[in-house]
Amino acid sequence: MKQEPVGLFEKYFIIWFRIVTERIWTGDKRLRNTAIAIFAFGALNVFLLTGSIKDFFKLKEAAVYDIPSTLYGLTDKGEYEPIAEYYKFSRIPVRLEQLKPEENALSADNRHKVIQCFLSTEDNSFYSHNGIDLKGIARAFVVNIMAGRVKEGASTITQQVARLKFLSIERSIARKAREAWLAILLELVYPKDKILEVYLNEIPLGHGTIGVGAASRFYFRKEVQDVTWGEAAILASLTTRPTQFSPIVNPVSSLNKVRVVFRKLVENGRMSVADAEKEYAALDEYYTNLNRSPNDSAFSDRLNRFPYVTEYIRKNLIRSIGSGRLYNGGLKIYSTIQIRHQEEAEKALLPALQRQTIESNQRAFRNIDAFDDLYGSGYSLIADLYDLPDFKFRISRTERTFSSAYQEDLRDEVSALNLLVGDDYLGDLIDKNYTSQTTKDHLLPVEGSLIAIRPETGYITALVGGSGFRSDNQQIRPFQAFRQPGSAFKPILYAAAMDYSGKNPDPEKNVTPATLFADSPLQYLMEDGDEWAPENYSSEYSGFILLRKALEQSKNSVAVRVLEQVGLSHLMDSLRGLLQLPGRDIPYNFSVSLGSFELTPYELTRAYAALASGGKTVNPISVLYVEDNAGKIIKDFRKDFEDEDRKQIISKEAAFLITSMMRDVVEEGTGRGVLSYGLNRKAYGKTGTTNNFRDAWFVGYTPELVTSVWFGYDVGTISLGRGMTGGKLAAPVWGRFMARALDREPAIDFPWLSEVKVTKKTVCRMSGKLPSGQCHDLFEEYFIPQTAPKEVCNDHGSSWNVVESRPNLPSTPTVQTEKKKSEKIEKQPSSSKPPKRKKSVFSGDEEIDY
């Protein structure tokens, strides 16, 4: 038995339906009532198929455009200047008021030539119909029936606006019905001029342009209000099939279509035949001088001064505000990038990478015919058995051989000969080949990274991610290249060790800049029975050496002994706090002291920024805030930045000590290359070079700026070449950038220096202890008060030797090799056949001749 519906709406609808039908079938006018009911239900069905109540609420969106967003950087004057645009399609909104009437009107209609061209070709009766042109529909129907195909459309400009704003390009009766319905609604809500304005700003005109403003700038390199009659006709000719009728892709088809536009202008009385012929003939110069690639697009024309910065910020903004809003919202994005810093970063790093590519001379794999030579016949058999496609190269072996030989051996000679001959055409071909295929294409490019951060604010002021931003080279290496820091990690280790000693003083284990360590070979027995033997770069050792001097000369053995003396477990919290590695941890082994684990340049720079800010963590930021098109702030990253805690990871005193030690690295140690470009302020930093010269680093800072520079191959096993150390490659680039970037900024001091509580003691340069009467080589050293030495030096005996010191550099320690009595020295195995030694995994980069 069928049950009655239980819902209130169902019951009400049934009752209403019964009442209506009862009224229709009662009385004398049953036939008329039935016809009215059928018509009403038919109209309701048509409305439900073509329209919706929601249509009334979304009409306001018709006048809202998707506008590109703009990225801003800071000038030297502190003013914001556009540096990039974000969009998928180029659109430059144009108001109808900008299209001024023609001063010399060729007809009674004196509207701007662009308006007249589009009205003539798309909808000549636009200002007289109500959204649907019934005459046009009838005319198009007859023309298409006679032609046997769709030759002429009947959509009015209003219908096209409805389709462009709200519908798809699907060809169906339902879509056309909705298009007509929405066109009627648009005509009821908006005046004609506004509808025309929306149309001119929404019509796609090819090569990634939307609207006449963007198309005019792309095709003619001028604003739309300044175009000629011929150029306006070209724009109007692109509405149906922009690719087919593009003057850049198909000049002949374009000219033919432009002729149709002029014929329409004549037919509609907007131009005389003579004027049309004159304006059409004037286009010859444009088409004759048109020398552009068919693949050109408005996307390649977009403002993009610093591609690596643009891409990095784009990725971050998509995560926070979404891609749709970024590309279409007309946002104004205010970044921390300083234009001068960014320009100097690219000038310093990119040429150095190009030079190093040639110097390192690592060739890419070029024997691409090896597979075909060795397995070509076998592949044919397998292809027959398993129905595989043919193995083909994109170009023939002959073409590849010629291209390679021409590029490497012949091109320079041909270019030189052409200078004597003076053939312009040949010269253009050679220049184009140089542009599209450089002489180093057969070499693996040396890549690199440069990132600069303000230590007090965390503002990222410059960012370079590699040797050049191209379709095949878009990795942002400051954030994506995980590489071993090598000796550049030592300042972080030493700072953590000195901080621990300051908080847990122990006269036997304190680590200070004047602590004496043995610089001698080390051997550790591994669990597998092998030995780990970390070595210095030159395999030479200095005996006993102060920690300050050990950092200056980048002694690996000393770094291991520091970790051994303090204990890795005591340093892990400080190291984790300085490096801030979410989702990753620091390996728990002694090789950490030599920078054995991988960090990105950004992570290493952020750790140095913590040292430069007095031991506090730094939270880098690249975008300050984002405004919408109306000037309202929709995302304020400054607030998020201020809400993040800056934790005091190590003491200001430890940060001060390691900073003073890195000053010696720059003045006397492996970082002297920093000074080659005349940096006019004190600098502090450390070089880094990994095993087999795979990576070259310099990371350092001034009170104003923290910067890292890295050189290396993307394939981490490839060497840069013997002797290619951080001091030789990275330090000069760092110095050039810092000297030029900070040239117009006043020198300042660290703001936290006044809060530092250290003591200065005169100590013996040989032992690091308080001097006795027999100590003649003395210098002043800084200490955390509770770690200051209390023991008097008694290491000289009666036969001490005075080491000559430099009076003008009293803080530079001198190396003595006399043994310290309390020092524990590892003994070498006494057996005639020593156990297998594991070669040093990492090399230091102590001072060498370069």
UniProtKB/TrEMBL annotation:
Q: What is its EC number?
A: 2.4.99.28
- Origin organism is Leptospira bourretii
Name recorded for this polypeptide: peptidoglycan glycosyltransferase
The record places domain Penicillin-binding protein transpeptidase at 448-738
GO MF terms here are: carboxypeptidase activity; penicillin binding; peptidoglycan glycosyltransferase activity
Tell me the pathway.
Cell wall biogenesis; peptidoglycan biosynthesis; Glycan biosynthesis
Locations listed in the record: Membrane
Q: Which UniProt keywords apply?
A: Carboxypeptidase, Cell shape, Cell wall biogenesis/degradation, Glycosyltransferase, Hydrolase, Membrane, Multifunctional enzyme, Peptidoglycan synthesis, Protease, Transferase, Transmembrane, Transmembrane helix
Tell me any Pfam family this protein matches.
Transgly
Residue stretches of biased makeup (Polar residues): 800-816
Bias (Basic and acidic residues): 817-827
- Give the record's family classification: In the N-terminal section; belongs to the glycosyltransferase 51 family.
Q: Which GO terms describe its biological process?
A: cell wall organization; peptidoglycan biosynthetic process; proteolysis; regulation of cell shape
Where's the Glycosyl transferase family domain?
A: 112-265
Region Disordered, residue ranges = 800-850
The portions of this protein that span the membrane are 33-53
> Known SUPFAM superfamilies for this protein?
beta-lactamase/transpeptidase-like (SSF56601), Lysozyme-like (SSF53955)
Q: Which reaction does it catalyse?
A: [GlcNAc-(1->4)-Mur2Ac(oyl-L-Ala-gamma-D-Glu-L-Lys-D-Ala-D-Ala)](n)-di-trans,octa-cis-undecaprenyl diphosphate + beta-D-GlcNAc-(1->4)-Mur2Ac(oyl-L-Ala-gamma-D-Glu-L-Lys-D-Ala-D-Ala)-di-trans,octa-cis-undecaprenyl diphosphate = [GlcNAc-(1->4)-Mur2Ac(oyl-L-Ala-gamma-D-Glu-L-Lys-D-Ala-D-Ala)](n+1)-di-trans,octa-cis-undecaprenyl diphosphate + di-trans,octa-cis-undecaprenyl diphosphate + H(+)
Q: Could you state one GO cellular component term attached to this entry? A: outer membrane-bounded periplasmic space
* InterPro entries listed in its UniProt record: Beta-lactam/transpept-like (IPR012338), Glyco_trans_51 (IPR001264), Glycosyltr_51/Transpeptidase (IPR050396), Lysozyme-like_dom_sf (IPR023346), PBP_transglycosylase (IPR036950), PCN-bd_Tpept (IPR001460)
Entries under PANTHER family matching the protein: BINDING PROTEIN TRANSPEPTIDASE, PUTATIVE-RELATED, PENICILLIN-BINDING PROTEIN 1A
